Sequence to fold (236 residues):
Amino acid sequence: MADNSLFQSDLTEYVGTAAGHTIGMVIANVDSLVRELLHISEEYASLGILTSRTGAAAQAYAVDEAAKATNVELLIFELPRDTEGYSGHGNLIVFGARDVSDARRAVEIALAEIDKKAEYIYINEVGHMEMHATANAGPVLHQIFNAPLRKAFGFICAGPAGIGLVAADVAMKSAPVDIVWYGTPSINLSMTNEIIIGITGDYGAVRKAVDTAYERASELIEVFGKKPESILYFTR
Fold:
């Protein structure tokens, strides 16, 4: 877990940090040319920003919780090639608010949630996994991953990409779930070396599929070295 006390700042944009080398910031009044460049509606005076070196679903699930609790709307979600040298992604997340206090509060909530959900991002010397499940998908997960609103949603990711393919296969064979989103290096991703599926169904089935995928992917990634461990052991 990140220790925000180590990163105190007088910068008005700075909010805090979280696991995965995540930084949270706000822009109180976005510049008109920047607004035009990013196609941001004039109704959103302020922006909340989260950007990370490692992880995507942990941050997406965290922002989904923040959006349920505040008056913000997701504007940008992108997956840059990163993971600090591993085979996956980082993220850029921007959401709009009519008031900077809403944007700041949403960033604060998301940072706290990221420190919890980053437990489920795992790495070893050369591989990585990210496995998450929620019983109640909100508007952000719906917008990003086509998760059915207020339904269970699971995220299964592993790299190198071939291991992600095996993880997806065993997940689908383990429980009655449906795929609602997927990513391969050249589809929905930025040529990152991974395969991702987003699944839905009964929460028990989603949880079983995610757990089964974790076990198989972990065993396969372990052939490269040690058993994959949570990034919290590396970034806290």
